[in-house]
Amino acid sequence: MRIALIDYGAGNVQSVKYAIKRLGFEPILTKDHDVIRDADKVIFPGVGAAKSAMEQLIDSGLDKLIPSLKQPVLGICVGMQLMCNYSEEGDVECLGIIDAEVKKFREGLKIPHMGWNNISDFKSKIFDGLLEGEQFYFVHSFYVPENKYSVALTNYGIRFSAAIQKDNFYAVQFHTEKSGDAGEQILKQFLEL
Amino acid sequence: MLSKRIIPCLDIKDGRTVKGVNFVGLRDAGDPVDLAEIYSKEGADELVFLDITATHEKRKTLLDLVARVAERINIPFTVGGGISELSDARALLKAGADKISINSAAVKRPELINELSTAFGAQFVVVAIDAKYTEQGWKVYLRGGRDRTEIDLFDWAKECQDRGAGEILFTSMDHDGTKSGFANKELAHLSSMLTIPIIASGGAGNMVHFKDVFQQGKSDAALAASIFHFKEISIPDLKKYLNDENIPIRL
Questions:
Q1: Which residues of A does the annotation mark as catalytic?
Q2: What architecture does CATH give domain A3-191?
Q3: Is CATH 3.20.20.140 correct for B5-244?
Q4: Is B185 exposed, middle or buried (0-12, 13-18, 19+ CB in 10 A)?
Q5: Does the ipTM surpass 0.90?
Q6: pLDDT value of position A28
Q7: CB within 8 Å: A15 and B167
């Protein structure tokens, strides 16, 4: 299986690579359009700010390529947020795959939302083998509100999307690669789609 | 609900784990990668590696260690010790660290916090503060507690947040190594005045101390070293106890 791990300069891609390797696969770190288009699975990670991440995607033309992909794509953290129409973080237009707008957590909460939180209301195959209420590791200050593409929810001051899915696009707000065995289970489910 | 985090801290010297009692008298407690894996399997929520002999010559050893940890374990980890430039932080990020912790370098040049936060995001930047109560109030100390400054703990913590720190790791030197509980009053004050998460450090001696640091100290996470390394408290027992005490925890 060819797994493309999109490397566009956003954060800790090594962790995602190592997590995939622990599952017995060898991902290709790349921003090459042909390699990404020809992969069986594409993983779209992201750490850092939406605006600078979008700028890097535009620079490498990935902003056009990613929405056109037909194979299963997994967005992680900022990768998930970038799949939406727009982000309040840096007031930036995003990829427009998911019809939703990324918002900042309200005042009065500790920001970032950092640590392990439980997720529920599973509506995707990627959660097969996991129990409702399982905990995952989150680090983010902006969130995707609950919408018709939400396939898992979590609570932090407000109920928001822990995961979304539309057609071949899957995405999780938490870090699968840092969420212990439960996180690796989701990666495994995604790779087995 | 967001869980409170339990964080074992591994002090690293020459690639081995050590823990100081009041920052002096180091004892060896094993191989860092093995320990990291044990803690991860036992249910630690995060790990901190603090390189206490970070010199330029030893940098490569630390980067190798970070890469080996990132390959083996699947929970987040922070690396601290000797980080004074963006290039140090970038090398650790590339090796697989999720966060870095800075201490003395931030006091000497506070702009470092802004630079790191802008370059890698606030979530990557933990500012560690060592402080001690003096007749003039709580003062920040540098170089592992050797040098006193005239900087007020609470002013400095606020400045760190304003400059872009993602978390504050506060060690009370008055409590560290005493096993008599965390500095709950000061921690609660930090937690109420700041909007970023607070990691409590220094003073853990028994399971009740962890309950107290979350309930009274209002901390988001609690860090300890020797009590975990020498198996005085097991993480599964601790988490079960905290869960029974109605503290949100990941089991």
A1: 77, 175, 177
A2: 3-Layer(aba) Sandwich (3.40)
A3: no
A4: exposed
A5: yes
A6: 96
A7: no
